[in-house]
Fold this protein.
Amino acid sequence: MEKDHTSEIDILLNRCIQGTGSSVDFEAAEKWISESPENRIHYLHLKNISDSSVNLPVSTEQALEKVIRSVSPVNKRAYILTQFRKIAAILFFPLLVYTVWLTLNFNRENKMLENSRHTVSAAFGSYSSLTLPDGSKVWLNSGSQLSYPERFTGNNRNVYLKGEAYFEVHSDKSRPFFVNTPYFRVRATGTKFNVDTYNNQSIAAVTLVEGRVSVEQPDERSPHIADLKPGECLKYDTLMHLSSVFKTDTYKYIAWKDGKLVFRNDPLSEVVHKISMQYNVEIEILDKKTSNYRYRATFENQPLNELLELLKMSAPIDYREISPVTLPDHTFSKRKIIIYATTEN
């Protein structure tokens, strides 16, 4: 730095520091200070000398503000942008840490809600209804159980069924709805269907009322079993792992939720199964041929004895009742009905 030039700069800087410089002086000083770190250090040195003196006409803080105010709008914007970047750099790391913490906490909360499950059961001889967290509606038949999370998270909505249930699934194509059972799972988006998977029978069934559903093997790697259309029913042999799909009167498969038993040319074996679930009674048919008698009827809120009498009138059968007995745990056994033929088969 040349001596003469240094003297001129010092005079200029001192005028600005003391607040006596013109706007041109302030612009020149600000430009010179920004040219190099050495220039800024020299300016600060002069400023410190000035600050240590007394009876200054203007404070150094005011002088600096004047320098900033006197520069052009472009330089003001550059200064503000520089300061903003400094602040952003300071805030970025804690903001990043907070964002990561918030994401991990949100995922952990969702995982907890997914793992926090509710289980609803319908007592034998009755049915119950409920609404799931996504707005889907479910009716549970006698002796059935449904497990579902407190909140559906992720890309799927999964529930777990034992027994029989009728579903009216809230439409959400981006998140398929899965009914998981011991034998298969049913995939739906928004539709109405019935699933019958009681573990005391060898045939499970899925009946579609509206929309579309896919019935798949429990293992996602295995091929699906069938795609159903409205009015179709899938019967699945849980022992042989064979399935068949056919058109049917769907109402007879879902009438139970309205308190009705509907039979349309159904064998006695299927009739007594539905009666046993509806009335919480054990029914045994003594011979195979009798179990093939077919019935077409609708029963609604009728006493069990009256219903059995109607069955007697429609086929050559009779029945007897075995009274409940006391069990070792001091409870009583189920009421039991034995059906037998009244003529030679």
Notes: The longest strand covers residues 157-168. The longest helix spans residues 73-115. The chain is about 35% helix and 30% strand.
